[in-house]
Amino acid sequence: MNELFSVDGRTVLVTGGSRGIGLMIARGFVAAGAHVIISSRRAEACAAVAKELSAQGRCEAIPADLSHDEGARGLAAAVQDRVDKLDVLVNNAGATWGAPLEDYPESAFDKLWAINVKAVFRLTTALLPALRAAAGPDDPARVINIGSVDGLRVPAMEVYAYSATKAALHMMTRNLAHQLADERITVNAIAPGPFESKMMAFALDDPTIRAGIESQVPLGRIGRPDDMAGTAIYLASRAGAYLTGAVIPVDGGLTTHG
Ligand SMILES: NC(=O)c1ccc[n+]([C@@H]2O[C@H](COP(=O)([O-])OP(=O)(O)OC[C@H]3O[C@@H](n4cnc5c(N)ncnc54)[C@H](OP(=O)(O)O)[C@@H]3O)[C@@H](O)[C@H]2O)c1
């Protein structure tokens, strides 16, 4: 059974791996014996996290700004300079924007479309040579996109562009899964509910809002790092080899109502 869920020795790229959900996933993979590359815009933050995680295993940093095509292409090139194959690509980097309906800025749509959708497409396609090199008939290469419950149901907060881009990402996941199945590359999405992060700090750091969110979650709590790392590791292991085009809510049951 240990072997069924093993990711030992796999090469994994986690975008936005410097904090929040990306760090939860990166930390889980390092602890499970994978060789992890993390990426985010801020080089110092990335390097510091890679150094910390290297105490438990193998982790390195390649900074990149994924808000434009050259950034995504540059990251793909830098990764492919360092490794011969990429077993797992975790497209986690993302951003949100909240504002009242009539004040919601057009710029939010452009910003979030670029990072939450376009960057995932560009990075995945630019990394296809390394993913193909890892893909085998019984052990496909894996792409794991981090979507959101806000792309599955109407969010409680006014995050219009965010929820639209996450719904787009879920659809793109299915589209790429269909397209890449022949090449033995699986593409799945995790749709997280509330998890502790900088993105969620405005809500979770306020005890009243936090309690309100917890009361909405049927399992009665905020997500924990193991909840996120566990699902990503399952998808990346032999146990997840026959799953493609799925959008998995990791949300304590939030999407069972509302
Ligand atoms: N936390 C939640 O409850 C929750 C729920 C549902 C879905 N999600 C999704 O989970 C993912 C991670 O979110 P999080 O909550 O962990 O947010 P976070 O704490 O804000 O982390 C975002 C990460 O992405 C990186 N990043 C942001 N913009 C980037 C850019 N232009 N280029 C490269 N890297 C960039 C950030 O590092 P730099 O600032 O250094 O670039 C950071 O590492 C997102 O896709 C988010 O939509 C989160």
From TrEMBL:
Keywords: NADP, Oxidoreductase. InterPro entries: NAD(P)-bd_dom_sf (IPR036291), Sc_DH/Rdtase_CS (IPR020904), SDR_fam (IPR002347), Sec_Metab_Biosynth_SDR (IPR052178). Gene3D superfamilies: NAD(P)-binding Rossmann-like Domain (3.40.50.720). GO terms for molecular function: oxidoreductase activity. The keyword NADP applies. SUPFAM superfamilies: NAD(P)-binding Rossmann-fold domains. Belongs to the short-chain dehydrogenases/reductases (SDR) family. NCBIfam families: PRK07231.1 (NF005559). This is 3-oxoacyl-ACP reductase.
